[in-house]
Each structure stands twice: as structure tokens, then as C-alpha cells.
Design a protein that fits this description.
By secondary structure, the chain is α/β, with parallel strands linked by helices. The chain has two domains: about 180 residues, Glycogen Phosphorylase B (Rossmann fold); about 190 residues, Rossmann fold, CATH 3.40.50.2000. It contains 18 helices and 13 strands. The strands form two sheets. Strands 3-2-1-4-5-6-7 form a seven-stranded parallel sheet, sandwiched between helices. α1 crosses α18 and α4 crosses α5. The longest helix is centred in the N-terminal third of the chain and has 18 residues. The radius of gyration is 21 Å and the shape is globular.
């Protein structure tokens, strides 16, 4: 069968690539065409556009690139209809993907599957109407989403979380010792303070300076930054003042060896918890006072990090908008740099969160259901 996939960022590229591998096991004749990234390309198929050409974050960048966004959307719609896949699989990225879904539903009979549900439970709950109208099957990776969609009389498939799959696959094949990791990356023997500052330039520019300022208050730790996929090292250099290291394509090895982490809110917070690394969640926003007001009055959830949302309580400290500054980061970080009650409690709550998530195998479960549904329809 022919599978067309659309992702809009690095985490989508990772999870879609694992789904593609699982689909190839279920369907030996699987063909892929996609808007995606390097990881998807490594699985096979034809990439139409890289997700870096799609991803714009924030009101002003989106406004400045409207012509490009509409051009990409137009090309995507036409390409899907021309290729005529057996299924269109949308991966997160709702602003783009829901518009594509509406068009394809109106212009064709192509089944539409959504893998990694849009987070409408936090923002824009009204999008449930679009999903119920346009999406044939939705595959959820967050356990609390089941109750939300049931409340709206929409049945979804909870298949577990692909972050668990990715971490499990990595750990099974990872043999590098701490000493080998340090030697390979020219690191010292100091404990590692990992900085995961986001996957987009706007995020990095907003978060990394404050993260570094806070981290520099603890000279007994070495700061190692996880470089984002597709962003050149030269972009990071102006931020580095005291010999901080930056490494690329080694986020999981870095988390495996880290003692503590500062993490920008997103999938990385969940991955950090799965690797059992105590963390402070940091998220700077433009116009922080306005964001704090919007969060208080319009967001439907108490937390922004996936760790806290899944656990149903505050496990990791979230420093967002007006609370996000180097002093607050430094204070919260200090609570996790020794065998403190805060560190012990966080690690204990990680274990509970992992039990809620369930075992590895999300990609395989999703692929099995998808192929079964498509075979039944044919």
C-alpha cells in the first residue's frame, strides 16, 4: 500500500520514521512519500519537502512567511491528490495538517489517519469539530487524551508512547561507557549538566541565554548543550562564553550520561524523564506577561510539560513566561544537584509516570491497527 505522511518538526520526524519501520514489517509492499526529515528519508520512500521548510514558530515569523506557508500547503495538497495514496497519515503539527485534512476529505476518498493527536485539550478545543468531521482514525500517545476525546463522543486509539519505543530501542543497543562518551566528546570528569534548549531557532534564542547564565553558577558541573537537528553549530557560538560544549546527534547518549538537565518544554521533557534525569523545565515566551494572562484565562490545563500532564501533578518545576529567568532557574537547579529530597521525589515520580505510559511497542501497535483497518476497507 501507499502511505503519505506529513510532519512539521524534529520529534515528528523521529516518531514517523519509527512508524514507517513498523509499517514496513506489517506491509511488505509499503511505499512512502512524505513531507518530513532525515530520519524518515533513512527509512525509504520519497521526500517532497524537508520539515525545516515548513516550521515557523510565533506570530511574527508566521506572518513574515505567509507566502511560503501557503505555497507549501498548495503544493502538498496537489501532491497528495496526484500520488493518490491508500492513506494519508498526519503527525501532530495541527495548524498545517488540519487544513490539509479538510481539503483532502472534500476532494477525495483517501482515508485520513492522525498519528500523535493535536493537543486541543490545552488550546483551541473547538478544533474537535474539524477532527470529528475530517479524521477517520486518531492514534493517541498520551493516556489522558482518551478521557478528553470520549467526553466529545469521539473514539480514539491509545497505542502507548513512541518516546518509550525510541528510548527502549536506543538503550538495548547502547554500549558506550561514561568514560568513552566523555573521551569521544572531549569532556572532563565533572558531572554533566545537559541543556536541551529547543529544536527551533526562536526557542533557542529565547531559552539558551538564561539557561547558560543559571548553569554558570555551578562550576562543579560541565555544561553540555544538545544541538538541534538541522541547526548549524555557528548559530550557537555567540551564546557560548565559558567553554561550554555542544554536541549534535547525541541527545540520547547525552541524557544517558547526564546528572541533571535544563529542558525546554516539549517532547524533550518526557524523554528526559524516561531517561531518569532530574530536570527543570524552562520556556521563555515573547510578551511573557501576556502569555501568563492567556495561560491563566484560556489554557485548559494546569501544566505545560508532558511529564506533569501525564503524572497529573507537579513532578518537575515549570518556569514559564514571567517565571522564566536565570535566577529562578538557578534556584530550582540547585535543589537537584545533590541527594536532596526534591531529587529523590522526582525520580520516584518518574517511575510512576513510566508505569502510566506503559510498555514499549507504540509504533508496532499503531502499524498493526492501521494496516488491519486499511485491509478491511479494501
Amino acid at each position: 500500500m501507499k502511505y503519505y505522511l506529513i510532519v512539521g518538526e524534529a520529534s515528528g520526524d523521529l516518531h514517523a520514521s519509527n512508524l514507517m519501520k513498523a509499517l514496513k514489517k506489517e506491509d511488505k509492499q509499503a511505499e512512502f512519500r512524505f513531507f518530513g526529515g532525515d530520519l524518515m528519508s533513512s527509512v525509504g520512500g520519497e521526500r517532497v519537502k524537508h520539515y525545516r521548510e515548513l516550521a515557523y514558530m510565533g506570530f511574527v515569523p508566521v506572518l513574515l512567511h505567509l507566502r511560503t506557508i501557503f505555497s507549501n500547503m498548495k503544493r502538498c495538497k496537489a501532491d497528495i491528490l496526484a500520488w493518490s495514496p491508500d492513506v494519508l497519515i498526519l503527525v501532530d503539527y495541527p495548524g498545517f495538517n488540519l487544513s490539509i485534512a479538510k481539503y483532502i476529505r472534500e476532494k477525495s476518498n483517501i482515508p485520513l489517519f492522525y498519528y500523535i493527536s493535536p493537543k486541543i485539550w490545552a488550546w483551541k478545543e473547538g478544533r474537535i469539530k474539524n477532527i470529528k468531521r475530517d479524521i477517520h482514525e486518531l492514534f493517541s500517545i498520551l493516556p489522558f487524551e482518551v478521557e478528553f476525546f470520549e467526553k466529545h463522543n469521539y473514539r480514539i486509539n491509545y497505542i502507548g508512547n513512541p518516546c518509550v519505543d525510541a528510548a527502549d530501542a536506543f538503550l538495548k543497543g547502547y554500549t558506550q561507557t561514561a568514560e568513552q562518551f566523555r573521551e569521544a566528546n572531549n569532556l572532563s570528569d565533572k558531572p554533566i549538566l545537559a541543556l536541551l534548549a529547543g529544536s527551533r531557532k526562536q526557542e533557542i534564542e529565547g531559552n539558551l541565554p538564561m539557561m547558560l547564565e543559571a548553569a554558570r553558577q555551578y562550576p562543579d558541573y560541565q555544561v553540555v548543550i544538545a544541538g538541534a537537528p538541522g541547526i548549524d553549530e555557528a548559530f550557537y557560538n555567540p551564546f557560548l562564553q565559558q567553554g561550554e560544549k555542544i554536541i549534535f546527534s547525541q541527545t540520547y547518549p547525552l541524557l544517558k550520561q547526564a546528572y541533571v538537565a535544563l529542558v525546554t518544554s516539549g517532547t524533550a521533557t518526557l524523554e528526559t524523564a524516561i531517561f531518569n534525569v532530574p530536570q527543570v523545565v524552562c520556556y521563555a515566551t515573547p510578551m511573557p506577561r501576556l502569555y501568563s494572562w492567556l495561560k491563566k484565562n484560556f489554557l485548559k490545563v494546569k501544566f505545560v510539560s508532558l511529564v506533569n500532564l501525564i503524572a497529573g501533578r507537579e513532578v518537575v518545576r515549570e518556569l514559564v513566561a514571567t517565571e522564566m529567568n536565570s535566577n529562578n532557574i538557578s534556584v530550582e537547579l540547585g535543589k537537584l544537584l545533590a541527594d536532596t529530597p526534591e531529587r529523590a521525589t522526582m525520580l520516584r515520580e518518574y517511575e510512576r509516570m513510566n508505569n502510566i505510559l506503559g510498555e514499549a511497542g507504540a509504533s508496532e501497535r499503531a502499524a498493526t491497527i492501521m494496516v488491519k483497518l486499511l485491509n478491511k476497507a479494501q
